[in-house]
């Protein structure tokens, strides 16, 4: 019997997605070192990468980058299949679904900043719904909505502004 080998040859798209996912994973791991005032309140720096991918290469690539980040980031942080992983996954899926719908809004009025805020609110919403259904079987979890809404607004604005600035490209010193 002859041995059978299957060779998978990565495409240029595969390499680009891997590089972008690696950047998002680095931001996720770095963010884990930041002390948090409340559990679950994080800046979501990796979402900057997702927003840039969404704007430049589309929703499909953004989904790949976001999901690779969730799985690899959780694996590297030792949280794969822990409650934090599922909360992150639920938030990411809600955020991606929202971005998938919101990207059809007129770009004239809805850019990286508004998409970032929408995604941040969806992320928090997905996490709170999962927390309520699975971890905290009491409606008291929704008392945290104002705190998380404030965090989603602030971090969504900041991440959206950073993404918009990065998408402008290098600034030339020439006049």
Automatic annotation (TrEMBL):
<feature type="transmembrane region" description="Helical">
    <location>
        <begin position="115"/>
        <end position="135"/>
    </location>
</feature>
<dbReference type="Pfam" id="PF07456">
    <property type="entry name" value="Hpre_diP_synt_I"/>
</dbReference>
<keyword id="KW-0472">Membrane</keyword>
<feature type="transmembrane region" description="Helical">
    <location>
        <begin position="85"/>
        <end position="103"/>
    </location>
</feature>
<feature type="transmembrane region" description="Helical">
    <location>
        <begin position="141"/>
        <end position="164"/>
    </location>
</feature>
<keyword id="KW-1133">Transmembrane helix</keyword>
<protein>
    <submittedName>
        <fullName>Gx transporter family protein</fullName>
    </submittedName>
</protein>
<keyword id="KW-0812">Transmembrane</keyword>
<feature type="transmembrane region" description="Helical">
    <location>
        <begin position="20"/>
        <end position="41"/>
    </location>
</feature>
<dbReference type="InterPro" id="IPR010898">
    <property type="entry name" value="Hpre_diP_synth_I"/>
</dbReference>
<dbReference type="InterPro" id="IPR014535">
    <property type="entry name" value="Hpre_diP_synt_I"/>
</dbReference>
């Amino acid at each position: 019997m002859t041995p059978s080998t299957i060779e998978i040859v990565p495409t240029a798209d595969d390499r680009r997605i891997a590089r972008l996912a690696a950047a998002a994973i680095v931001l996720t791991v770095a963010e884990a070192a930041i002390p948090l005032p409340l559990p679950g309140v994080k800046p979501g720096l990796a979402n900057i990468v997702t927003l840039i991918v969404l704007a430049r290469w589309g929703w499909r690539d953004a989904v790949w980058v976001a999901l690779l980040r969730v799985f690899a980031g959780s694996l590297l942080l030792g949280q794969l299949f822990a409650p934090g992983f599922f909360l992150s996954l639920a938030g990411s899926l809600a955020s991606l679904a929202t971005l998938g719908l919101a990207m059809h809004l007129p770009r004239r009025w809805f850019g990286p900043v508004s998409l970032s805020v929408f995604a941040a609110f969806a992320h928090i919403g997905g996490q709170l719904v999962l927390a309520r259904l699975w971890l905290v079987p009491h409606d008291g979890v929704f008392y945290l909505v104002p705190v998380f809404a404030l965090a989603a607004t602030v971090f969504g604005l900041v991440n959206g502004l950073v993404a918009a600035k990065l998408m402008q490209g290098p600034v030339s010193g020439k006049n």
